Amino acid sequence: MLANEVDRQAAEQLGFAIGRRMSGGGTMIVEPERTITYSLYAPASLVAGLSFVESFAHLDAWVVDCLRRLGVPAGYRPINDILSPEGKIGGAAQARRRGCLLHHTTIAYQMEPELVGRLIRIGRERVSSLGVRSAEKQVSPLARWTDMSRPQVVGALSDHFQTHHGGRLRRLSAAELAEARLLAASKYATAGWIDRLR
């Protein structure tokens, strides 16, 4: 339940908007220009034969490999954490619907670690007995481990993915962006969706 997870008053005071991923999972702090987020959308057959836990490691392995090549001491911790020796660099969530898979990961490039305790109600008394609660994990922003700028890291990740898995870069069309905005306004940005229990 959202009330167990997020300190709404602190979020409002600090200018954060609250959203909910269709894949659920624990709370992540996403800040423009201070976070790297990517999504993989593919047929569910991409992870055929893998357990749910194994699929997370499989779909984020390219990121761990890329970060290591950049000199970041990155590793992986099941079920969904990319980490350094000092804590969590990023976390993933996943949803499967109608034979398709959505896997998205958020990486803290640059973050004030104390924000976690201010915005996420880790260790505080439950407001409700319903809902999943985020685990208490130390955040280890990527900028702690590299002098590369955020755009440079994004470029390295993109190049690494294309080199090892193919694909090409393409900008979203005006029609696709308009459709996404309409879907957000009618569903994903509404209080009914954000406050709904899974």
Could you characterize what this model shows?
The chain is α+β, with helices and mostly antiparallel strands and 198 residues long. The protein has a single domain (2-194), classed as BirA Bifunctional Protein, domain 2 (2-Layer Sandwich), CATH 3.30.930. The protein is built from seven helices and five strands. The protein has helices spanning 2-5, 8-14, 52-69, 114-119, 150-165, 174-188, 191-194, and strands at residues 35-43, 75-77, 81-84, 87-97, 100-108. It has a five-stranded antiparallel β-sheet with strand order 1-5-4-3-2, with helices on one face.
Give a brief rundown of this model:
With 198 residues, the protein is of the alpha+beta class. It has a single domain, classed as Bira Bifunctional Protein, Domain 2 (BirA Bifunctional Protein, domain 2), CATH 3.30.930.
Question: Could you give the count of β-strands?
Answer: 5
Mean pLDDT score, rounded?
A: 88
Q: Radius of gyration, rounded?
A: 17 Å
Topology order in helix (H) and strand (E) letters: HHEHEEEEHHHH
Main beta sheet = 5 strands, antiparallel
Write the CATH fold name. BirA Bifunctional Protein, domain 2
Number of domains: 1
CATH superfamily: Bira Bifunctional Protein, Domain 2
Note the beta-strand portion: 15-25%
Number of helices: 7
CATH class assignment: Alpha Beta
Share of helix among residues? 25-40%
User: What's the architecture, going by CATH?
Assistant: 2-Layer Sandwich
- Principal-axis shape: globular
Enumerate the spans where pLDDT stays under 50 for 5 or more consecutive residues: 128-135
Order of adjacent strands in the largest pleated sheet: 1-5-4-3-2
Q: Roughly how many Å apart are the termini?
A: 8 Å
